[in-house]
Specification:
The complex is a heterotrimer of chains A (about 290), B (about 170) and C (about 800).
Chain A lengths: L7 E3 L4 H11 L3 E4 L5 H6 L7 E4 L9 E4 L2 E5 L4 H6 L1 H6 L1 H9 L3 H6 L2 H7 L6 H7 L3 E6 L2 E6 H4 E3 L2 E2 L6 E7 L6 E8 L9 E9 L5 E9 L7 E2 L1 H7 L6 H10 L14 H26 L2
Parallel strand pairs in A: 1-3, 2-3
Antiparallel strand pairs in A: 4-5, 5-10, 6-7, 6-10, 8-9, 11-12, 12-13, 13-14
Helix pairs in contact in A: 5-8, 11-12
Chain B lengths: L1 E8 L2 E8 L4 H8 L19 E4 L2 E4 L12 E3 L12 H8 L9 H11 L7 H8 L10 H15 L3 H6 L4
Parallel strand pairs in B: 1-5
Antiparallel strand pairs in B: 1-2, 3-4, 3-5
Helix pairs in contact in B: 2-5
Chain C lengths: L15 H5 L15 E7 L5 E7 L1 H5 L3 E6 H4 L17 E2 L11 E2 L5 E7 L2 H10 L1 E6 L6 H5 L14 E9 L2 H7 L2 E12 L8 E7 L3 E6 L4 H12 L6 E4 L16 H13 L3 E4 L2 H7 L3 E12 L5 E11 L12 H8 L9 E9 L15 H18 L3 H8 L6 E2 L5 E2 L4 H12 L1 H13 L3 E12 L4 H8 L5 E7 L5 E5 L8 H13 L6 E4 L17 H28 L9 E4 L2 E4 L7 E2 H10 L13 E6 L7 E13 L4 E11 L7 H20 L31 E4 L17 H17 L14 H15 L2
Parallel strand pairs in C: 1-13, 11-12, 15-16, 21-22, 28-29
Antiparallel strand pairs in C: 1-6, 2-5, 2-7, 3-6, 4-8, 8-16, 9-14, 10-11, 10-13, 14-15, 17-18, 19-27, 20-21, 20-26, 23-24, 24-25, 27-28
The chains are: A alpha+beta (about 290), B alpha+beta (about 170), C alpha+beta (about 800).
Chain lengths: ~290, ~170, ~800
Amino acid sequence: MYPEPIEQYFQPTTLAAALQLVATHGSAAHILAGGQSLVPALKARAVPARALIDINRVTELATLTTRAGGLWLGALLRLTAVARDPLIGRTASALADAAAALGDRQVRNRATLVGSIVWAMHWGDIAPAAAALDARLCLAGPAGRREVGIESFVVGPQLTVLGAQEMVLALLLPAPPPHTGSCYLKHGRVVQDRATLGIAVCLTRGPEGRCAEVRIALGGLAQHPICRATQIEERVRGQIFNAALLEDLKHWASTTITTHTDELASAAYRRQLIGVYVPRALELAWQRSAESGR
Amino acid sequence: MNRAITVRVNGTLHHETVDHRLLLSDFLRETLGLTGTHVGCGYEGRCGVCTVVYEGVAIKSCLMLAVQADGAAVLSVEGLARGEELHPLQRAMHDCHGLQCGFCTPGFLLTMYEFLKTPVSDPNTIRAAMNGVLCRCTGYVHIVAAVEQAARELAQMDPDERARWFPL
Amino acid sequence: MSTAPWVGQSLPRKEDRRLLTGEGQFVSDIVLPFMLEAAFLRSPHAHARILAIDTRAAAALPGVVAVRTGADFAALGPILSDLSVPNLPGVTQRPVFGPMPVDEVLYAGDLVAVVVAKNRYVAEDALQLIRVDYEPLPALLDPELALAPDAPRVYPEWRDNLVYAQEFRHGDAAAAFAQADVIVAERFRGHRCGATPMEPRATLASYTRAQGLTLWLTTQRSHIKRHLLGEYFKMPDSRIRVIAPPDVGGGFGVKAPLYREDLVICQLAMTLGKSVRWIENRQENLANIGQERDQIHDLELALRRDGRILGLRDRMLADCGDARVPIYVSFSMPWLGAMYLTNGYDIPNLEIDLKCVVTHKAGLTPSRAFGSFVPRFAIDRIVDIAARRLGLDPLAMREINLIKTFPHDTATGVHCDSGDFVGALAKASAAIGYADFRRAQTAARAEGRYVGVGFSLGIEFSGLPSQILVPMERQPGFGVASIKLDADGGVQLAHGDQAQGQGHDTTLSQVVADELGVTPEDVKVTAGDTQSSPFAAGTLASRMGGYTLSAALFAARGLKPKLAAIAAHLLQLPLGEVGDFEFAGGYVFPLGDPARRISLARIAETAFLAPTELPPGMEGGLEFTAHFEAATSGMQSTNVHVASVEVFPETGRVKILRYVAVDDAGMAVNPMLVRGQIHGGVALGISNAFQEEFLYDAQGRQTTDTLQNYLIAAAGDLPHIEVIEHHVPSPHTPLGSKGKGEGPTGMAPGALGNAIEDALSPLGVTLTQMPFTPERIWRLVAQAAGRGQE
């Protein structure tokens, strides 16, 4: 339960220095941020020790600012801060919910918003929530900066397009349209657990009590950390949002999603959970869209 | 593969040279001889008995490398009491029988120390705040009671006295 | 000058301060000069031949002092002590094994090699460099397959895979079943889980030619380990000292066996001439110890129409793993579980057919509830199921069948000296508001909500007498305590049953303080060090409250005549009986005449420093040792638990609304500590019943290797636990006190299983398996619904 020898350890204090180190060492180094996933992996000797670039002193990465009406969430923001921030709570509740649902108090005090996305475990909480919110990531590398939509960033379980010489600088959230609400619900076996199933919903109310726009992203499914439930979205988009719609989804929603069996749950139970949680998540997002008022 | 670090622990500055891979938990226990912080699991970092306060927040010391703490301040269980005077939370744990074998106790003390900076008196919220430390002896009932007692006592103090009990 | 008695007060503990300030002393906190660190290489295979082990690269790594394999320990021979195997009435086949396998491993996690290095970091580097050539072999993992006549044998030299088998017979079960109006038969499965303390094992061995072997150990039983080590290493006991330090982080039975790793570490210290330490990590811990329960019961009740149970038959199958667990051999627990199967129910005719098989899994280690977790679940559940079949209320069913008069001997031969189920059940029913609950249940059902209530009854052993412990473990059942005064009048109490958090120090101090008229702070309590504590079996079976406590009381009382005689002499009073003197406030004085007092300090000073001033003919010194063996073959406490739940069928989630334990501690010396034992015991039971399970894959590899997949309950997973006292003093202990600790755990699955099934009764669900995971509950509901549609 101890890491292999760690040859080099760097503790840059500026973004420029950090980027330089990442460019130099590339895949021969790990970026150490919150460490709540990396340190266990090092201790288990599941990943080679290599060199560590500890970016926790790069304060530039911990900023939270508005940008074009949306939010720039620095990569180093801790989940505790994300869960509590009033602006995030008002305009991107799904992300606040996901941050609050991950791990325990101590883990959230260190774990970063972006760490979970970069590890891209299929049971991760942050990526589906970010996807429902149509988030983008800002990456930086030797070739400069680029922005990538989250669903283009996470391409499969434990697979992202992050280059060996790149770092994530921030999660970007667009300005939500008026009357938008979002949420993230998580089903675990016990209070502190991986997601057996996670459901993130972001929807926008339209006139006449209709759902004008909706994005639904599921987590906890083996095939991908972010499973967009596009068929369910089509079924809901433009419809009058009422009990009959939700009741219909209860029986039908799970038929549109492939589920798997693992040590957490069976495929059948996951289908059952989809039927339970999709309506609940939609309902909660709808309520919040009323409260958002904008 | 060593590095010279300076860490303030319980108010005292320590200058040590440590291996890169030395965990913060082992730095406290083996390098500094502060064995009050315990280690109860393996690579997974789930049990929480190693919890200390790092720069004001509760963290699991087995999930941090000692080198990361260079220039930082840490509060461990040995730093809670002020001389002979126990911290209100320590006293409440004693009054309420919130510990049995004591192995997890430092983890609870440091986690709930942080909680008590902005306490919420709802038992469910208290339990949720405790989820990161596991106990096998008490069933948590008396620990919840202890946190409630400590919160009441701290709320009745004047702000300066209260601040003395939260040095980090 | 008299003060309120200490006994009966909820005194905060003397143990707390050091634990709250980080000054506890656990084994892993002890540092010896030039101490080396050991790490074990363990088998990834459930069953394999070891063809070759190449340790050269590991041994050459800088910082590594030694690498050893099974071949290096083979000359020590197998563990053959009589102490290391139970001597129970059934048929035993005994695994013969040494400290480390040489050419065959029998479970995933089995020992293969050990590295000794300057620290654990380097030791783990070396482990990675050891090359082992395994030939994987088929693994026997199913206990029912293990019973088949043509099953491959885990121990080829055995007749079969039965490590233990016994038939229990009493009365005429055949007649009972022939006469029955209704027979209820169900299969109950208890899964593999256990007590897993927060502190894993730790061993620190030091050897010098002058001192011999000193071993700091996270053990519940120092003297027994010392004796076993002496036998094994062919050393006199006097050359071995075993020390369980003042602080051990939870035991719950798991730290009671002798372990092979202990032998390895001792041998390393003796051959390397350096202190060697091994601190277990959680991965090793989960793979090797704390696995228990794991039983199948094919249980039948013969019933009369009015609800009376006429007889019981049980085919009980325990999966004991490899059973290489010295002292217990993994079958003591199922045996005791079978003995306690009828539990709080008066069932005179029975046949229990107990079979304990070996498989290629970790051997079962004792875990709080000790073999009775699954039997209690089974009996409490089948009583409810029977009630339902007969159309009777489960509460009424219990009122008909519970043990009504004491003393009572169960059909398996367990003697219940005292208790009151009638009163406890009435209290439990009143506490949960039974009649109101049923009304609320009806209303909830009309709203489509599923709430339910369930009871469990339990007899909990208050220690075990020698007549059971000697055959079961070749250990004494007596409690023993030695009291000594210091020259300044301070009191020292040494006893044989060290604590792992139960608060023995405080509790015993309260008892001694009352006897000698001092304060608990004046009493210095030591245990756990074989050099300074009297020989006893150690902490197990809820001994302390009955046996150890009584021994401490009698030791204090035993000293009083001499103290009184010295007092009388110094006060120049005629020497009467002890009863003529009072002991209070640190003084001794004639009854009713506190002005003529003499301090314990003065008496002690006289006895030690000025023996010429003692009464003529009296020897110096002030000490007394008492052994306590109750004049009975069994002391029990009687307890009733009741729980209410709400079940959400669409997810299978269960919310525990209330959990109430009506508890008998005989006489609570420290009620707050007793409550703590009940909370902890119930919490373990709930966690075991709902969310913990040790899992092996199809190849026998253990998949539960972290606390993120072996799910110990966190605070948010558990309900508040209410405790109501219903004490029935034992007639066999001086204070009437009883032990407490093992019992509460085994009562949780029955009460909660009953509540869940009661909640779901409109849906026709029968709950006979654990753990009660949401998915399991959901499936039962879905299956019942599917049947309903046919």
